[in-house]
Structures are given as C-alpha cells and as structure tokens.
Automatic annotation (TrEMBL):
It is a multi-pass membrane protein. It comes from the Bacteria. Its main location: membrane. InterPro entries: T2SS_GspF_dom. It is found in: Cell membrane. The chain crosses the membrane at residues 6-21, 67-94. One of its GO terms (cellular component) is plasma membrane. Keywords: Cell membrane, Coiled coil, Membrane, Transmembrane, Transmembrane helix. PANTHER family: CONSERVED TRANSMEMBRANE PROTEIN-RELATED, INTEGRAL MEMBRANE PROTEIN-RELATED. It comes from Streptomyces fuscichromogenes. Residues 119-239 form the Type II secretion system protein GspF domain. This is Membrane protein. Residues 199-226 form a coiled coil. It holds the Pfam family T2SSF.
Length: 286
C-alpha cells in the first residue's frame, strides 16, 4: 500500500509538471504567432518560467482550495479518506477568513482615503475656493467617497444636499469620518463658521484614531502569533513523528485509539483557536 501511494503521488506530480510545461509552450507559440511570426522555441521551459507559472496558478486559486489539495495529498500518503473530508470542511472556513481579511483591508484603505479627503479639502478651502468647488477637486484627487462619490459630486456641483449625501456615504465600512465631514459642512454653510478650522480638527481626530488602532494591532500581533504557533504544533508533532519512523498517520487514521485521539485533539484545537480569536476581537472592540 505504501509503494502504491508513493507511486500515485509521483504520477500526479509528473502529470502536473507536464501540463504546466505544455501550457507554457502553447502560450509562447501563440504570442510569437500574434507578434508576426518568428522562431518558435519547443524545448522545455526554464526553471524561472516554471516558477512563474506556479505563481500564476497559486494566484488564480484561492487560498481555501489549497486545504483540499493538502487533504488529497495526505489521503494519498495515509491511504485514508479522512484527510479529504477534513480538507473539504476547511474550504468554507478558510474562505470566511479570507473574506474577513479582505473586508478589514478595505475598511482600512477607505478610512485612510477619508483622512486624505479631509486634508485635501482643507487645503482647497484655504486656497480661496468655494466649498462646493473645493469638494469637487478634493473628491477627484482622493477616493474617500467610495461608491457614493457620484451622489456627493452631483450634490456639490448642482447645489444639492451635500451633508445628506456625505451622511449616506458615511454608511460604507470604514467611512465613518464622513459623518464628521457632513457635520463640519453643515455648521460652516448654515452658521457661517470656518470650514478649514473644522476640517483641521476632524483630520487630527481621525489621524489620532488611526494611530490608536495601529498601536492596538501592534500590541495584539504577539497574541496572534502565539495562537498561530500553538495551532501549528500538532502538525509539527506529526512531522517529527514521521521523521523518527513512528508513522503517526497510520496510527491516527487506522486505529481506534488513534481515531479517538484525533477527534479529541481536533475538538480542543478548534476550541482553543475560537477562544484565542474571541479574546483578540474583544480587545479590538474595546
């Protein structure tokens, strides 16, 4: 069974390498033909081209699908279907983690764009431009308005309800600072207060809040790294056991005691990761 598993893994690796080489060869041939002819290289691709193709393949595949690939690989090595089932169960979990990370990055980028918008608007107002014209110029140079930019621009250009449009734009994740901009605009236009002074205070407050969040993330990075390291210890133990010749995969997947230990360990692993994530999120929310 062990020789069959190793042979199947080698065959799968060879087929993948051959497919990558054929695809690279076809791409090169097509590019030369579209460029007007020339000498077509039919030899095997270089290591740089193969690595570039692997990078493109990794970028095309979402990170969650690699859990299924790892599960299939372990299933071939251990001659068991349990790793495949575990890899398939890990796909939605990793997808959720990836989407949450993307949403967090989007919120952070939009918050930075709002700060840039406030600074640019304050500079335009100090340059002597009217608030509507200044907002148009600032919105053109920054992406702080996000998807609500057409509504805000239309309100500023045609004399509409700019504070209302800014309040609607503030509902986007990470664009909370636009509600402060709407308040500054309303006070400046309705009561004649200085818009530039209010924008300076708003810009300083948003920057202080961003620095505070960055400092908090830096303080929590150690806790996150510790949680990840503890979560990776079981895999390290399996690698050490395999290096010592103990065959831990066979024990875990083909014996009753191993299956019981695997079940209990998985439950404790999941509970520990959930608890650590809850602690970190609680600290971030506070």
């Amino acid at each position: 069974m062990g020789e069959t598993t190793v042979g199947a893994a080698v065959v799968c690796g060879g087929v993948m390498a051959w497919l990558l080489a054929e695809r690279q060869r076809e791409v090169r041939r097509t590019r030369l033909l579209l460029a007007g002819g020339g000498v077509v290289a039919t030899g095997p691709p270089s290591w740089e081209q193969a690595l570039g193709e692997l990078r493109r393949l990794r970028g095309r595949w979402r990170c969650e699908w690699w859990a299924l690939v790892a599960g299939v690989t372990l299933a071939l090595l251990a001659a068991s279907l349990l790793p495949v089932l575990a890899g398939a169960a890990g796909v939605p979990v990793l997808r959720r983690v990836r989407l949450a990370r993307q949403a967090r990055r989007t919120r952070q980028a939009r918050a930075d764009a709002v700060i840039a918008l406030c600074g640019a608007l304050a500079g335009e107002v100090r340059a002597g431009r009217q608030p509507g014209e200044a907002l148009l110029r600032a919105a053109r140079d920054s992406g702080g308005l996000g998807e609500a930019r057409p509504g805000v621009v239309a309100a500023a250009r045609f004399g509409g309800d700019v504070p209302g449009a800014l309040a609607v734009a503030a509902r986007q994740p990470g664009a909370d600072g636009l509600s402060g901009l709407a308040a500054c605009w309303r006070v400046a236009v309705d009561q004649g207060a200085g818009l530039a002074a209010g924008l300076d205070r708003l810009d300083a407050a948003l920057r202080a809040e961003r620095d505070q969040r960055a400092d908090l993330r830096a303080q929590l990075s150690g806790a996150r790294a510790t949680a990840v390291m503890l979560a990776a210890l079981p895999a390290l133990g399996l690698l050490l056991g395999s290096a010592m010749g103990a065959d831990p995969l066979r024990v875990l997947l083909h014996t009753g005691a191993g299956l019981g230990c695997l079940l209990v360990g998985t439950v404790f692993e999941g509970a520990g990761m959930w608890w650590a994530t809850r602690i970190v999120r609680g600290a971030e929310g506070a």
